[in-house]
């Protein structure tokens, strides 16, 4: 039994000390993020950091942390909904979400994502607009003892 399985539900969280990575990939009029991480929550966070990097080159230290949560029927849908919520938060709060911390839980009704991010005011950054996350070519799978994700954003 996993140590976090005490109540029968497993929850993983990102650990900033673990080896995660993301790379931006050229993709016609879009931008793609390819990410790897040792855990599912860490790969969600790595894709979100890729979203941030695709949005701007330098991130200032300003901004307040905020919480968000989404539910979905599948892991892939949970990743899509999480990223879509980050774009929504950017558009509504007028902040660029950065410094992502994510928890992903497999529940009896599907997948639950709870997360926090620091919202950098858009006035403090020269941000490129990411219009939407897409299902086009989306991949989320176990690979080489960890997790791999490939996500295309419409710019």
User: What is the CATH domain class?
Assistant: Alpha Beta
The number of domains is 1
Low-confidence stretches: 1-17
- Label the structural class: alpha+beta
CATH architecture: 3-Layer(bab) Sandwich
Portion of residues within helices = 10-25%
Number of helices: 2
The CATH superfamily is known as Archease domain
Strand content bin? over 45%
Strand order of the largest sheet: 1-5-6-4
Gap from first CA to last CA: 43 Å
Tell me the total number of β-strands. 8
Q: What does the overall shape look like?
A: globular
Q: Describe the biggest sheet?
A: 4 strands, antiparallel
What's the CATH topology label?
Archease, Possible Chaperone, Chain: A, domain 1
Supply Rg.
15 Å
Summarize the structure.
The chain has helices spanning 40-55, 75-93, and strands at 11-13, 21-27, 30-37, 64-72, 95-107, 110-121, 132-143, 146-154. With 155 residues, the chain is an alpha+beta fold.
């Amino acid at each position: 039994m996993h140590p976090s399985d005490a109540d029968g539900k497993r929850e993983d969280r990102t650990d900033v000390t673990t080896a995660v990575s993301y790379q931006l990939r050229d993709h016609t009029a879009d931008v793609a993020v390819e990410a790897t991480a040792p855990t599912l929550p860490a790969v969600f966070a790595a894709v979100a950091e890729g979203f941030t990097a695709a949005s701007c080159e330098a991130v200032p230290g300003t901004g307040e942390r905020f919480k968000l949560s989404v539910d979905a029927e599948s892991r892939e849908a949970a990743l899509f909904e999480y990223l879509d919520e980050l774009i929504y938060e950017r558009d509504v709060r007028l902040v660029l979400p950065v410094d992502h911390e994510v928890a992903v839980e497999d529940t009896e009704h599907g997948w639950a994502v709870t997360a926090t991010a620091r919202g950098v005011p858009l006035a403090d950054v020269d941000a490129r607009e990411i219009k939407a996350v897409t299902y086009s070519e989306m991949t989320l799978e176990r690979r080489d003892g960890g997790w791999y994700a490939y996500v295309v954003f419409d710019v």
